[in-house]
Amino acid sequence: MPTEQPCLHVICGKIAAGKSTLAAELGAAPNSVVIAEDDWLAALFKDQMSTGQDYMRCAAKLKTVMGPHVASLLCKGVTVVMDYPANTVDFRRWMREVATAGGAHSIIHVLDVPDDVCLARLKARNAAGAHAFAASEAQFRQFNKYYKPPAAEEGFDEIRMVGSSRT
Q1: pLDDT (mean) for 56-79
Q2: 50: domain CATH number?
Q3: Where are the beta strands (DSSP E) in the chain?
Q4: Is residue 132 pLDDT above 70, yes or no?
Q5: pLDDT of residue 3
Q6: What is the largest CA-CA distance in the chain?
Q7: How far is CA 98 from CA 8, 16, 54, 61, in A?
Q8: Which of 16, 18, 88, 99 has the fewest Cβ atoms within 10 angstroms?
Q9: What is the predicted pLDDT for the residue at 138?
């Protein structure tokens, strides 16, 4: 039986804000695992996703299996880092429900990075071709319309990163 309560780490940040980089850092801790939405979506649905609506449909399907899976890992004492965009109230509510079902503590890491920095990173990431999805600037702007930073009443402990500093 684990002696420490597991933790569900969730990350809020715009496209190319550094969510996957932070997830990898957090996931390097002992008894931790990273679950990356982009990897799963690319493996299961890449040929079915060409629009934002396609992403929403496929992400919803993935949530139906990932929620119970992550809760099960948490129940076993494994800390889980969700490399998912926790960018809307509804999505974060789902993540809190998963944490509760798994008996876990939850921390939200908020990456507060300016759009121009994200866009420069996105351009470099797309040029490198190493990411599962190459979002366009138009897609970046489209998804940013739905971005909403977390509020205290959502129930997460929060770590905020502005640029490269943590507060």
Answers
A1: 94
A2: 3.40.50.300
A3: 7-12, 32-36, 79-85, 105-112, 157-162, 165-166
A4: no
A5: 52
A6: 48
A7: 8, 25, 24, 15
A8: 88
A9: 84
Task: Identify the helix (H) or strand (E) that includes residue 100.
Answer: helix 89-101
45 falls within a domain: yes
Looking up tokens 């899976």, which residue turns up? 69
Q: How many domains are contained in the chain?
A: 1
- Predicted pLDDT at 163: 74
Torsion from C-alpha of 78, 21, 67, 134, nearest 10 degrees: -150
* Domain of 89, in residue numbers: 7-159
Rg for the chain (alpha carbons), in Å? 15
For the chain, percent of residues with pLDDT exceeding 70: 94
Q: When comparing pLDDT for 106 and 142, which is higher?
A: 106
Residue with more model confidence, 56 or 22: 22
Tokens of 8: 């569900």
Using the structure block, give the residue that is written with the tokens 């933790």. Answer: 7
Please give the single-letter amino acid code of residue 85. P
